[in-house]
């Protein structure tokens, strides 16, 4: 899993509440058993019309937001069914961080396991962030997990808190296997004693 200390990147405002996992990656694209290749179907129905042409109005299709690595969404992002593919699609597309007032519980667990930083901020603050980003014409934003701050193009900083265990896992880039392997000596001693 890729380590996450800080990123400086374009943030895309996504003013939609209750974005469920099927909206993130429709079920018909979940045939893959690997994490790669799903990004091209991220937000399929929002990004493309019935003929597969990009919808110019969707934020990730705007030239200034094509390389966005940060999404600023509304409440209940990632609700719905428990598909890890939703996180895989976001990260494969290049999204490293989602900021929203709340997240689906299972989605949040999948995000932590796959290196996607989720930041919870009050609804009014998320709305203000979306406005500030548009006013700054999508100038890059810095998300610093070490000091737990978001730095806007204006220089303004916004503090946030992440669960200490989640923070450590992301900073060190530890997936479930890597966390288990940190105890390899203890596991070996236990197995030898059996």
Describe the structure.
The chain has 194 residues and is of the alpha/beta class. The chain has a domain at 8-141: Alpha-Beta Barrel (Aconitase, domain 4). The protein contains eight helices and eight strands. The strands form two sheets. It has a four-stranded antiparallel beta sheet, with no helix packed on it. A four-stranded parallel beta sheet has the order 2-3-4-5, sandwiched between helices. The radius of gyration is 18 Å and the shape is globular. The relative contact order is 0.18. The mean pLDDT is 93.
Largest sheet: 4 strands, antiparallel
| CATH class wording of the domain at 8-141 | Alpha Beta
The proportion of residues forming helix, as a percent range, comes to: 25-40%
- Order the strands across the largest sheet as they lie in space: 1-6-7-8
The count of helical stretches stands at: 8
> Which structural category do the helix and sheet elements fall into?
alpha/beta
CATH topology label of the domain at 8-141 = Aconitase, domain 4
What low-confidence regions span 5 or more consecutive residues with pLDDT below 50?
none
CATH superfamily of the domain at 8-141: Aconitase, domain 4
**Overall CATH architecture of the domain at 8-141:** Alpha-Beta Barrel
Taking the alpha carbons of the first and last residues, their distance comes to: 32 Å
What is the beta-strand fraction?
5-15%
Outline, from the CA principal axes? globular
Helix-strand pattern: EEHHEHEHEHEEEHHH
How big is the Rg?
A: 18 Å
Q: Mean pLDDT across all residues, rounded? A: 93
- How many individual β-strands? 8
């Amino acid at each position: 899993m890729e380590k996450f200390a800080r990123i400086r990147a374009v943030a895309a405002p996504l003013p939609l509440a209750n974005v469920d996992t099927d909206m993130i990656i429709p079920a018909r694209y979940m045939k893959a058993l690997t994490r790669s290749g799903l990004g091209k179907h991220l937000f399929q129905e929002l990004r493309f019309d019935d003929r597969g042409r990009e919808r110019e109005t969707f934020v990730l299709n705007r030239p200034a937001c094509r390389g966005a690595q940060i999404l600023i969404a509304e409440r209940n992002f990632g609700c719905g069914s428990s598909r890890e593919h939703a996180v895989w699609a976001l990260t494969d597309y290049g999204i490293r961080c989602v900021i929203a007032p709340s997240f689906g519980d299972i989605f949040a667990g999948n995000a932590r396991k796959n290196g996607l930083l989720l930041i919870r901020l009050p609804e009014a603050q998320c709305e203000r962030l979306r406005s500030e980003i548009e006013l700054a014409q999508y100038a890059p934003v810095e998300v610093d997990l070490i000091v737990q701050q978001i730095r806007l193009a204006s220089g303004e900083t916004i503090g946030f808190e992440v669960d200490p265990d989640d923070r450590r896992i992301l900073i060190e880039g530890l997936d479930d296997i890597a966390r288990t392997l940190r105890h390899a000596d203890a596991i070996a001693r236990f197995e030898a004693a059996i």
